[in-house]
Fold this sequence. Notes:
- The protein is flat, with a radius of gyration of 20 Å.
- A hairpin with a 5-residue loop joins strand 2 and strand 3 (about 25-40).
- The longest helix has 10 residues, at about 60-70.
- The strands form two sheets. It has a five-stranded mixed β-barrel with strand order 1-3-4-6-5. The protein has a two-stranded antiparallel ribbon with strand order 7-8.
- It has three helices and eight strands; from the N terminus they run E-E-E-E-H-E-E-E-H-E-H.
- It has helices spanning about 60-70, 140-145, 160-165, and strands spanning about 5-10, 15-20, 25-40, 45-60, 75-90, 90-105, 120, 150.
- By secondary structure, the chain is mainly beta.
Amino acid sequence: xxxxxxxxxxxxxxxxxxxxxxxxxxxxxxxxxxxxxxxxxxxxxxxxxxxxxxxxxxxxxxxxxxxxxxxxxxxxxxxxxxxxxxxxxxxxxxxxxxxxxxxxxxxxxxxxxxxxxxxxxxxxxxxxxxxxxxxxxxxxxxxxxxxxxxxxxxxxxxxxxxxxxxxxxxxxx
Length: 173
């Protein structure tokens, strides 16, 4: 099975960075996607279970995920679903794995600041008309990026009133 899916959920733990045997960057993390329905009698949401997904992201997406996502963050993920049977210690199960194509914060639950990655070969913008100072330190120096294709831009500040997300998260609110 190799279907494209989109899920909404919460990051279950900080993403773990690694690399494939060929040196390709990869991050792995789990996402909880609670299932719920609205009960007309009680006028409240009732949780009917939670689906857990193992998510993998590769290459530049992996680097961005590691820098951006943390445990508890609301996310939207699109990728290829793979169902995998497993057996360990006499137990058998079915795992839902997603190879991510795109990942973003779910902005229903908070604010997010976006910093576009610029190609290292692109001329950086100079702040305040100062043509001598690159906008990103080392942007024109391959040694500073380790030869990477992209240079990380500094993240903008998020206003304090938008930076805090409440702990009471319920689907459909």
